[in-house]
């Protein structure tokens, strides 16, 4: 089995967000995009959402994102970072 290739982000908009302490949590479309962003806000996190960029490169598969873009569906990348009022997780599993 071939390992999944990870792309290291060092520059561009995503690199700037990571350098500022933002953590990419997920890429998802509506209506879950708004629900997840609101849940992170309710837990006290700062939330930053950007439109998911569909790159036309041969390095990764973007077939689903491209097909959905053709019919008007947008995906967003949710980034979070802790703020001063982030609630600690109290679940025994965490």
Describe the protein.
The chain is α+β, with helices and mostly antiparallel strands and 94 residues long. The protein has one domain (12-81). It contains 3 helices and 3 strands. It has helices at 12-19, 32-42, 63-70, and strands at residues 23-29, 46-51, 75-81. A 3-stranded antiparallel β-sheet has the order 1-3-2, with helices on one face. The longest helix has 11 residues, at 32-42. The chain is globular and about 40 Å long. The protein starts with 11 loop residues before the first helix and ends in a 13-residue tail after the last strand.
Which properties best describe this structure?
94 residues, three-stranded antiparallel β-sheet, 21% strand
Biggest sheet, open or closed, and with what strands and sense? 3 strands, antiparallel
Q: Roughly what fraction of the amino acids lie in strands? A: 15-25%
The counted number of beta strands is 3
Q: How are the strands of the largest sheet arranged?
A: 1-3-2
How confident overall, as mean pLDDT?
80
Q: Helical region count?
A: 3
By secondary-structure content and strand pairing, the structural class works out as alpha+beta
Helix content: 25-40%
Oligomeric state, counting identical vs distinct chains: single chain
Domains counted in the coordinates: how many?
1
CA(first)-CA(last) distance:
31 Å
Run of helices and strands: HEHEHE
Q: Pick out the low-confidence regions.
A: none
Q: How would the global form be characterised?
A: globular
What Rg is obtained from the alpha carbons, in whole angstroms?
15 Å
């Amino acid at each position: 089995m071939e390992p999944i290739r990870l792309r290291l982000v060092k520059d561009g908009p995503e690199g700037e967000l990571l350098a500022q302490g933002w953590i990419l949590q997920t890429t998802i479309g509506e209506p879950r995009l708004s629900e997840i962003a609101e849940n992170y806000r309710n837990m006290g996190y700062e939330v930053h959402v950007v439109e998911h960029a569909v790159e036309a490169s041969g390095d990764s598969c973007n077939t689903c994102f491209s097909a959905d873009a053709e019919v008007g569906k947008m995906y967003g990348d949710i980034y979070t970072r802790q703020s001063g009022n982030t609630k600690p997780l109290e679940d025994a599993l965490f």
